Amino acid sequence: MDEKIVRDSFFKIKEWDPGTTVAIQDGANLKSAKIIRVAGDKVLVLAMGKLKVYPKSACKPVPVVTVVKPGDRVKVPFVGAFKDATVSRVDEKIGRVFVKFDGDPNEKAIAFGDVLKS
Predict the structure, then answer these.
(1) How far apart are CA 65 and CA 115, in angstroms?
(2) What does pTM read for this prediction?
(3) Which helix (H) or strand (E) holds 31?
(4) Helix or strand or coil: residue 112?
(5) What are the residue boundaries of the structural domains of the chain, listed by start?
(6) Would you identify the CATH topology of the domain 73-117?
């Protein structure tokens, strides 16, 4: 479907904007969360359906536009945590990275803003 975007009806998001993804180190796990708001050195996130506040220093922003190629190792959100995967292909037109998890022959489509290069 081709649609024209109405001028000034959107804004370009960047790291730390509401709705973008952050990686949060929680012990041995790397959790995935969506930013709701950043205020000073605190970040309010939505993770697994729950609101939580973390220090900004504990959060790593995931690039809004990722630069990966087939064969690259990446981390992508899976059930609230980042999971290792391998890039099988990239479709820049639709903003998706297609990955395969270790041991799974099926491809999964992941949005650009949810891919963390390993």
Answers:
(1) 9
(2) 0.86
(3) strand 29-39
(4) helix
(5) 21-61, 73-117
(6) SH3 type barrels. (2.30.30)
Residues 6+ apart with CB under 8 A from 26: none
Average of per-residue pLDDT values in the chain: 94
Write the DSSP assignment of 33-89 as a string of letters.
Answer: EEEEEEETTEEEEEETTEEEEEEGGGEEEPPSS----TT-EEEEEETTEEEEEEEEE
CATH 2.30.30.10 fits 21-61, yes or no: yes
- Whose CA is closest to 113, among 4, 33, 11, 2? 33
- Same CATH topology for 21-61 and 73-117: the answer is yes
| 15-54 residue pLDDT tens | 999 999 999 998 888 999 999 999 999 999 999 999 999 9
d(CA 73, CA 57): 25
Q: Which residues contact 12 (CB under 8 A, 6 or more apart)?
A: none
Gyration radius of the chain over CA positions: 15
Lowest-confidence range among 5-9, 35-39, 64-68, 88-92?
5-9
